[in-house]
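Technical annex, item 7. During the second reporting period the consortium partners agreed on a shared format for inverse folding records so that results from different sites could be compared directly. Each record opens with the tokenized structure and is followed by the designed sequence. A conforming record, contributed by the partner at site C, is shown below for reference.
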């Protein structure tokens, strides 16, 4: 399992130190992977102001001022690098149900 974050590598080092992660964490601060997966979206001025109002410096976290974020998503990818299952939800608080994720993983594994 891997996770990809829009934060720059230096910010991810802080995350790794603060938490014991059981997975690899990679930086996509330029949003190349997010765009390739079709999950990047452009923040409008109102959203950028809202984040700034919460004390979140998106450009500082990413190290770039592209004004983009990824839609929170889960991809199940097989050994042949084929995407077998996708879950995306713009509401970062809503995550896929564990039972559905496990069922999708089992189905993807049996397809090989």
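Designed sequence (site C submission):
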């Amino acid at each position: 399992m891997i996770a990809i974050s829009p934060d720059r590598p230096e910010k991810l080092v802080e995350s790794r130190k603060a938490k014991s992660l059981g997975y690899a964490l990679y930086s996509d601060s330029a949003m190349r992977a997010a765009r390739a997966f079709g999950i990047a979206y452009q923040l409008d001025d109102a959203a950028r102001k809202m984040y700034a109002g919460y004390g979140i410096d998106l450009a500082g976290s990413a190290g770039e001022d592209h004004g983009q974020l990824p839609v929170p998503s889960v991809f199940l990818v097989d050994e042949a690098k084929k995407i077998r299952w996708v879950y995306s939800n713009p509401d970062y608080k809503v995550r896929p149900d564990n039972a559905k994720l496990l069922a999708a993983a089992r189905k993807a594994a049996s397809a090989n």
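DSSP finds five helices and six strands in the chain. The first strand starts at residue 2 and ends at 5. All partners now use this format for quarterly exchanges.
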